[in-house]
Known about the structure:
eight-stranded mixed β-sheet; alpha/beta; two-stranded antiparallel sheet; about 300 residues
Amino acid sequence: MTTAHSFTRHDITFPSGDSTCAGWLYLPTGVTSPPVVILGHGLGATREMRLDAFAERFAQAGIAAVAFTYRHFGDSGGHPRQLLSIKRQLADWDAAIAYVKARPDIDRSRIAVWGSSFGGGHAITVASRHPELRAAVSQCPFTDGLASALALGPVASLRMTPVLARDMAARVRGKAPAMVPIASAPGSPALMNAPDALPGYQALQPPGTTFRNEVAARVIPTIATYRPGRAAKKVAMPILFCVSNTDSVTPPAQTLRYARTAPRGEIKRYDAGHFDFYTGETFEALVRDQIEFLTRQLHPAPASTP
């Protein structure tokens, strides 16, 4: 019977733009030049919110893992705080790829990216821009800002207009950003107000988390026009889409339309909500499918047999 690899976890930082990203590096013990998967999270989330759970399983399968937090969030650098910039987050992904390529203890020819929710959309974009990658995983991905805005509802969207105007004015004047909640109760203004959004985010937070349930409101127009699903057709390497059939945040019908355009795409569907993907039986099913996919693409060394 094959056993799981043991692993070590290391605190890391790497430069990105004008600052740094903080992260964790998981290395399978006793493995020379393992493949690596880079993990990035969703809207305003930090790596402490269950990215470690996925990274640990990948490391046990013989795949090194880097889980990082975007600039402006958590313990990463960047000012002002809680600034959600799509352009900067994509640059953070590029910086993470450059970081693992520069490490002598990782096989730079076997790199994969893994993103969840908003990060799942980023993973599609990043994979379309980095043909040297070996594989990508896009979990409950944000693929179409317009579709997500329609899911939020026009009334809730309009209620965020005043805070958006205040933040735009603050930006011009060099003042502190005006914030909007990431997740809130149904009917309340926020980037996400589906019934499972606020409890979903709360369930992912460990004690002492660095997560703050707010972002600078100036991101609202850019989220609405961000459509990373359109890049799926340009992803040359194998990409696994893990889709929630009942997703309240990233509507599955549009996600599936985009996923089917990926030349080497694989699709797995789950009867679980957007926020159920990180814990319990759904997490176990997801991580099992993802390890099977990543093992096929990255060919990690098997653990020793007792």
